[in-house]
TrEMBL record:
Top-rank lineage group of the source organism: Eukaryota
Coiled coil: 171-238, 269-296
Protein name as annotated: Tripartite motif containing 31
Cross-referenced PANTHER family: E3 UBIQUITIN-PROTEIN LIGASE TRIM
Assigned keywords, A-Z: Coiled coil, Metal-binding, Zinc, Zinc-finger
Record GO terms (molecular function): zinc ion binding
SMART domains recorded: BBOX (SM00336), RING (SM00184)
Region annotation Disordered: where it falls in the sequence: 328-359
Domain called B box-type: residue spans: 90-131
InterPro entries named among the record's database cross-references: TRIM/RBCC, Znf_B-box, Znf_RING, Znf_RING/FYVE/PHD, Znf_RING_CS
Ranges for domain RING-type: 16-57
Amino acid sequence: MAGQQFTNKLQEEVICPICMDILQDPATIDCGHSFCLQCIMRSREGLDSVIKCPLCNKIVKRDTIRPNWLLVNLVEKIQAMDPSEEQPEVKELKCPKHGERFHYFCESDGKVLCVACCGSKDHKFHNTILLEEAAQSFQGQIQSQVEALLQKERAIVQMKLQGDQRITTLMAQVEQEKQKISTVFEQLLQALKEEKNFLLSRINWLDQELTKDRNSYLASAEAQLQSLRKLKDSLKARQLLPPREMLQDIKPVLSRSAGFRFLSPPPVSADLEKKLNETKLRHESLIESLKKFQDKCQADGKKDKSRFLKGLDKHYIKSWYLLEKSNPTPMETLEPESPSDDRNAKPLPPKLKLSPSLPNLFRSRSRASIASFVFYSNEDSSEDPGSPGAAWTEELKAALSEWLRAIKSP
């Protein structure tokens, strides 16, 4: 009895998880599980060069299937054992009503019958056949259903693989678009930062030169005022002298007083005033271009958002708003300007909502960087040229091109 139990346990170790029979040509895959060679080969059909383990669902390569010689030897030894030791004792089922063994199968009711049941009034006029015949008939039906389910399994596995590949492709496209947008806007922000630094330097230079002219003008005017006051004080003092002393050299003194002329230099250099006026005109043009560009971006953005959400399922729209709510607004992501950076910059009208450093002209050395943004290569983009996103991108490029031309104009 102990030997039979040991044999039964050995048999449990060499049962194929797919066909539930003793392993035939045992083979092991990379995850460590073993199956009949034919069973595991059938399970891979439709999956090209990969196999999914039926037990742990791990994907392994087909060429990793290898014979398990240890199990081959073990199976051979078990099969060589005495049949009485090989099979465990099976408790024979008997009719609960009559206590007899089952010998027949009722095709009408689908029940197993003993001899007494077969002759009873309940089954007397039913179609009954021997159990062995019924088992043989149903064995074919079961096998047919197994094959049908196996085909469905293969189709589902193939469909699952194709679906996962499609999703992976779309996710790669999403990541590509994310990188593209990040790169383009980083280029634009860097160009604007460079222009801000240059334009503030130019404004500071104008302020510095105007301060020099002011100091020079005030110094010249003050020196002449001092000379005038000395001459005036000299005449007042002569009035208080006795007649003889007052009249001494009176004509040259009066001539010098009458000939005094205030040399009025220009308060500011004509060149500086001209450059300041040119800068102001260009700034006004740039502010208008930026305002139009901002309004267009905002209007197109609202339309694009409406088109994007139109037709989506409610759960998609809900997840969109939750994500939008959790993300900071673009204004919150900008680093605050240092007070020292724009101490000389004049504030813009509040409705413009632009950095005070933006209403300036672009310097020549960074126009190339702006141009490179405007004409940014889109060769790697897989976006349909007729899609709303592509149209918006072209409108953005056109607006920036117009902006750049306005900046370059004298």
